[in-house]
């Protein structure tokens, strides 16, 4: 060969080397050689890096849960920004005005009691049952701290007292309103006399009676209820909005917690075991069933329950580790697998919060543990099963380096396909408008990617240590262990805790280092440098081209032989019935999916037996009581002077960062036209009709926007401007006997005089945005609506639209009458309105996420397998899994609507539905044989055992969640169980049936073949031209 030819060869080989080192397989081969030569160093190095990441996560406080706030709110939604604007404006105003202590109630601090009567018929209004009520409520009233936390009535500004409770007991027992700490005393009238007085005003007192009260001639009510209110601000705060969550927690820690414990004792409520709380028990006193609740109590109970429910994660990890030890037959490898899963979470947390700077971390993120348990165990099984099968693979042999290279190549590719697809499924949720879903998706994706890397980096040196070092260590460290393990191995081949049999391909000299495989980097064949022969073990995967022989199969484990023989033969006979059954199931499941609808009622987060679920069922819409008090109805605010929130530069991961308030610079209220327009707004709202089904009707069946007793026309709560009008009329010194409007120049001074009156300041602080005394930035009118939350968004949205139509009409009227300063008002119903759009976003994003995941999975499958036909079969299988779970399991069996919990869980579990079919599809293409039957048989033989083991571990980890309290976790458990069972059946029955019937043979469907054909077609087209 001449000099020129040698240069050409050298140049070609140089380009080949460059291409080789851009190939991930070459990097993997190099790492595997390194792991073979220095297993202890590399194993300890990888472990040290993971431990350092964990320490970094702890040191950077990455484990700290984010404070709860507005994380589930769509901050860019107009209604959300408008609602937040009035909250922020009130907070800012609070820095100028000090609100009287405990002068305002708070919805979270309303403690309610509901009693279920005894007797036949069941009736709470008997002397015995009323005495039981008195005993229960005196438990709280006679607590010495009650008077320090009750909401105060400032009618006598100098001597405020606790407001009167909403309870039927004052109608029957002595009660000193000015000294309520004495509690209820002796009877003051008979039951019949008390009921007669209460019956005179059923609009108000219907709160205490159920429907049968009027039917029984006003004598019998199966249930009755009481409600007590605790006020804000507490000492140390200027107003009720200032750090209101901290104030609520202060009231709970210093009073309500003690009351809660006292009620547990009086009502005999006990935590039956570690995994239950007292609220899981029924409360009774001498036969009367008592339930009680307050949102402040629910928040604290939720925190307790969440951590109790998450203790099941530890049991899940333990169960997975035990099964891994059983399946792998190695204590060491099972510990490595558990270590991988355990370390993926804190390492992911370190990258998520410290490296990528995502601040938000909540309880929802902890659910990733259950996903990592399933995926991590599956990855370990794929690696170890490939290693154990490698000895029987033709072309591999017994050499440990060659077996290690074969294992790393086959297992890493299989794990990559499932890991990347599952990670992409979670990363797809980053398109969600809801910040917690975006954050969870990003965190889950990071954890899964890191789990893949940990598995690929840790398993090669772990397998080398398992193959040689553990037998050596066991023989020297535990003299009794080898005989015991050999005995167990003979009796129970799958149940071996210590690997004590030396690997035939392992070479260990006195426990020292391995002998390195000889390599020849200068081997020339036909004038070309064969770089691969420098490490012949690197090419072991390419040399494994012949079919599994009967002898090779006989050396495999029983389950592998089962999949290779009996199971495969069964599928050959039953494939057409299985394909038809799959098509029928798919059609039935699709029918059920078309019947999905959002829930018509509010989501239930507590189980049926829980105290708070019972309380919620009785107080929700459709409850047994004749009427509810105003506080249970949504308050709608009509606001002028604000536009919303300016989100420029806000931190998307901070639930409480809303930017700054955006004021309406065109707002004015000084002109007579503007004063007159605002003065008439409340009256017009009271007479406005509501056609929404969620608006409560009055006694005549008519529906209005605003709630009050229409049988008493003057019983409505006045707006501040109506009280100001009366103030101006009655104050003759002002010179306006007809009330509002006043002259433009007089309006602001008169408004200041009105708001400086203490009784009005206490009643309307926050309603009038006077900053610094002379800067009127906003005003709001508060009205009690006829809508009682919570309900599902399809019921709430028509109510919002009715109020939206009203404010639009009001603004148009203002513009037409020359009241331009108040022609840009808006309305907000608070969280009731805002949650509508969060609910819709959850459902829309779940559906959108499923379609995105399918698209990503199809692309990844085509990239990994290089074959479009097998990718289509795999995607059809995944579609069957998803539709079966959502249609047959969720809707058909459980009859759940597609609510918040279902939408969250569907996004989490969609990745689970793909793993098994993707494994089998990849193994089908990797088969060395060409016919579809042979390829299917190889796929089942190689991956059937791993898929089965992975399904068992994931199913086992999910089963523990059935013991949780929160319905979200029990729904999650059901969907894990149904997804794994469905995924396994579709993957092990439908997919191989489709593959052996329609799967590609030879290079049919390969993208390389298709591209070559297209090039040829284009070439022929060019020649024709």
Automatic annotation (TrEMBL):
Gene3D superfamilies: Multidrug efflux transporter AcrB transmembrane domain (1.20.1640.10). SUPFAM superfamilies: Multidrug efflux transporter AcrB transmembrane domain (SSF82866). It is a multi-pass membrane protein. It comes from the Eukaryota. GO terms for molecular function: transmembrane transporter activity. One of its GO terms (cellular component) is membrane. It is found in: Membrane. Coiled coil: none annotated. The chain crosses the membrane at residues 42-63, 305-324, 331-352, 364-383, 414-434, 440-466, 573-593, 846-864, 869-890, 939-966, 972-991. Keywords: Glycoprotein, Membrane, Transmembrane, Transmembrane helix. Residues 354-465 form the SSD domain. Belongs to the dispatched family. This is SSD domain-containing protein. It comes from Ostreobium quekettii.
């Amino acid at each position: 060969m001449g000099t020129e030819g040698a240069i050409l060869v050298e140049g070609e080989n140089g380009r080949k080397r460059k291409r080789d080192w851009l190939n991930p397989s070459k990097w993997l081969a190099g790492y595997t050689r390194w792991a073979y030569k220095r297993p202890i160093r590399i194993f300890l190095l990888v472990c040290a890096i993971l431990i350092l990441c964990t320490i970094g996560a702890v040191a950077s406080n990455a484990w700290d849960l984010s404070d709860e706030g507005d994380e589930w709110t769509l901050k860019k939604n107009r209604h959300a920004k408008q609602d937040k604007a009035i909250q922020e404006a009130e907070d800012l105003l609070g820095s100028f005005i000090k609100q009287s202590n405990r002068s305002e109630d708070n919805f979270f601090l309303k403690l309610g009691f509901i009693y279920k009567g005894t007797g036949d018929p069941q009736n709470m209004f008997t002397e015995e049952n009323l005495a039981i009520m008195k005993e229960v409520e005196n438990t709280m009233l006679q607590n010495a701290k009650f008077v320090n936390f009750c909401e105060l009535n400032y009618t006598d500004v100098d001597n405020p007292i606790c407001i009167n409770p909403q309870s039927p007991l004052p109608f029957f027992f002595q009660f000193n309103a000015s000294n309520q700490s004495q509690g209820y005393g002796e009877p003051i009238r008979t039951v019949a006399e008390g009921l007669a007085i209460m019956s005179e005003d059923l609009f108000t007192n219907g709160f205490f009676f159920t429907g049968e009260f009027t039917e029984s001639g006003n004598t019998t009510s199966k249930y009755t209820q009481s409600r007590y209110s605790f006020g804000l601000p507490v000492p140390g705060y200027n107003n009720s909005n200032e750090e209101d969550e901290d104030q609520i927690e202060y009231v709970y820690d210093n009073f309500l917690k003690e009351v809660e414990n006292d009620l547990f004792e009086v009502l005999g409520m006990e935590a039956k075991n570690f995994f239950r709380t007292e609220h899981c028990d029924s409360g009774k006193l001498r036969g009367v069933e008592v339930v009680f609740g307050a949102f402040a109590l629910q928040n604290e109970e939720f925190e307790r329950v969440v951590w109790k429910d998450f203790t099941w994660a530890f049991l899940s990890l333990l169960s997975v580790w035990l099964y891994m030890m059983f399946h792998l037959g190695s204590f060491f490898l099972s510990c490595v697998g558990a270590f991988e899963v355990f370390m993926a979470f804190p390492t992911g947390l370190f990258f998520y919060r410290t490296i990528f700077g995502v601040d938000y971390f909540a309880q929802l993120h902890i659910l990733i543990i259950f996903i990592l348990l399933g995926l991590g165990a599956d990855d370990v099984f794929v690696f170890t099963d490939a290693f154990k099968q490698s000895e029987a693979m033709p072309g591999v042999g017994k050499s440990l380096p060659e077996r290690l290279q074969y294992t790393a190549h086959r297992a890493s590719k299989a794990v990559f396909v499932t890991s990347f697809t599952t990670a992409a499924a979670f990363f797809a949720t980053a398109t969600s408008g809801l910040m917690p879903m975006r954050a969870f998706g990003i965190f889950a994706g990071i954890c899964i990617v890191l789990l893949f890397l940990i598995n690929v980096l840790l398993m090669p040196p772990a397998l080398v240590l398992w193959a040689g070092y553990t037998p050596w260590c066991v023989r020297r460290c535990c003299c009794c262990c080898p005989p015991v393990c050999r005995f167990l191995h003979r009796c129970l081949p799958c149940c071996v805790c210590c690997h004590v049999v030396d690997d035939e391909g392992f070479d260990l000299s006195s426990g020292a280092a391995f002998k390195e495989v000889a390599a020849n980097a200068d081997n020339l064949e036909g004038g070309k440098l064969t770089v691969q022969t420098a490490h012949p073990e690197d090419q072991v995967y390419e040399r494994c081209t012949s079919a599994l022989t009967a002898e090779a199969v006989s050396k495999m484990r029983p389950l592998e032989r089962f999949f290779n023989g009996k199971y495969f033969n069964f599928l050959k006979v039953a494939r057409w019935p299985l394909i038809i059954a799959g098509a029928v199931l798919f059609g039935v499941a699709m029918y059920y999916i078309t019947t999905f609808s959002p829930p018509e009622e509010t989501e239930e987060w507590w189980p049926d037996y829980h105290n708070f679920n019972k309380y919620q069922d009785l107080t929700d819409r459709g409850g047994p009581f004749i009427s509810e008090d105003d506080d249970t109805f949504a308050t709608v605010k009509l606001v002028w002077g604000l536009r919303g929130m300016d989100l420029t530069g806000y931190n998307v991961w901070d639930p409480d960062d809303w930017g700054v308030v955006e004021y309406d610079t065109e707002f004015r209220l000084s002109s007579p036209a503007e004063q007159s327009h605002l003065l008439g707004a409340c009256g017009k709202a009271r007479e406005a009709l509501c056609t929404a089904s969620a608006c409560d009707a009055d006694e005549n069946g008519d529906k209005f926007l605003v709630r009050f007793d229409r049988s008493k026309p003057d019983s409505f709560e006045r707006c501040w401007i109506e009280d100001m009008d009366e103030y101006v009329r009655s104050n003759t010194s002002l010179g306006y006997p007809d009330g509002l409007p006043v002259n433009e120049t007089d309006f602001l001074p008169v408004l200041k005089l009105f708001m400086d009156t203490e009784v009005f300041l206490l009643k309307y602080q926050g309603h009038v945005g006077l900053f610094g005394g002379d800067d009127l930035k906003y005003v709001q009118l508060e009205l009690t609506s006829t809508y009682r939350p919570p309900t599902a968004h399809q019921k709430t949205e028509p109510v919002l639209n009715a109020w939206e139509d009203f404010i639009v009409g009001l603004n148009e009227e203002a513009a037409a009458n020359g009241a331009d300063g108040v022609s840009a008002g808006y309305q907000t119903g608070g969280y009731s309105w805002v949650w509508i759009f969060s609910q819709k976003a959850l459902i829309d994003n779940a559906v959108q996420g499923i379609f995105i995941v399918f698209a990503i999975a199809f692309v990844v499958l085509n990239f990994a397998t290089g074959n479009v036909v097998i990718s289509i079969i795999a995607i059809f299988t995944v579609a069957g899994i998803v539709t079966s779970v959502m249609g047959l399991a969720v809707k058909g069996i459980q009859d759940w609507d597609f609510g918040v919990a279902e939408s969250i869980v569907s996004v989490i579990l969609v990745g689970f539905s793909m793993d098994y079919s993707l494994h089998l599809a990849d193994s089908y293409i990797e088969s060395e044989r060409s016919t579809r039957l042979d390829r299917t048989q190889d796929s089942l033989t190689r991956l059937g055992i791993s898929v089965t083991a992975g399904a068992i571990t994931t199913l086992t980890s999910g089963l523990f969640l059935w013991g949780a309290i929160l319905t979200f976790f029990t729904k999650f458990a059901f969907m894990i169980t149904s997804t794994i069972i469905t995924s396994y059946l579709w993957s092990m029955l439908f997919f191989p049936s489709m593959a052996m019937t329609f799967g590609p043979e030879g290079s049919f469907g390969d993208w390389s073949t298709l591209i070559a054909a297209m090039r040829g077609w284009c070439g022929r087209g060019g020649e024709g031209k």
